Amino acid sequence: MRCLACGYTINDLHRQTCPECGNAFDPHNATTFEREPWGSEKLHRGMRTVIALCTTSAAISLVATLLLIAAEFATTPRGPRSELEFFAKFALALTLLSITASVLAVIAVSESLSRLNAWKRYRTSLIWVATSWLVLFATLALL
Fold first, then answer.
1. Helices 83-115 and 40-75, packing angle to 10 deg
2. Contact 108/51 with Cβ under 8 angstroms?
3. What radius of gyration do the chain's Cα atoms show?
4. pLDDT value at position 121?
């Protein structure tokens, strides 16, 4: 449940007034508060999972890139570089892409959830979850 006036989460409050804006509500009268869409709790859990997977993917990509770069410098004498240099640069670019996607996903999800009403938040959240999954799978497929 959310406050109609300010959108503050009013689940499990002892008083029947919003602590943020002071708006009164009745938990037994659905017209006095904004209801969350069906399945939104699962969606929010899913978003947290997507964000965790994106950031984990970024961290793994970063470690793999650093290992590739270290291997390149350890195995190649000074002068012309081998094919490993190309893969190291590609992995570095991929790492930066996945880190950027992770940060954008976190920012976009938090912004979309904080300013929209429940139904718009739900739709926007679905879009961001789908986009995050696409970025995650594209990153993993390229590795």
1. 160
2. no
3. 22
4. 65
Query: Length of the chain in residues, anyone?
Result: 143
In whole angstroms, what is the distance from residue 50 CA to residue 44 CA? 10
Residues 13/3, Cβ–Cβ less than 8 Å: no
Measured torsion, CA atoms of residues 110, 111, 114, 119, in degrees rounded to the nearest 10: -100
Q: What is the mean pLDDT, run by run of 10 residues, along the chain of 143 residues? A: 77 81 83 67 70 76 76 68 69 72 68 59 69 69 61
State the DSSP code for 36. Answer: P
What are the percentages of helix, strand and coil residues in the chain, rounded to 5? 70, 5, 30
How many angstroms separate the Cα of 3 from the Cα of each of 6, 8, 26?
A: 6, 5, 11
Q: Please state whether the predicted TM-score (pTM) of the whole model is above 0.85.
A: no
The single-letter code of the amino acid at 54 is: C
Q: Say what the pLDDT of residue 64 is.
A: 78
Nearest to 3 by CA among 31, 27, 29, 34: 34
Number of Cβ atoms within 10 Å of the Cβ of 26: 10
Place of tokens 């954008």: 104
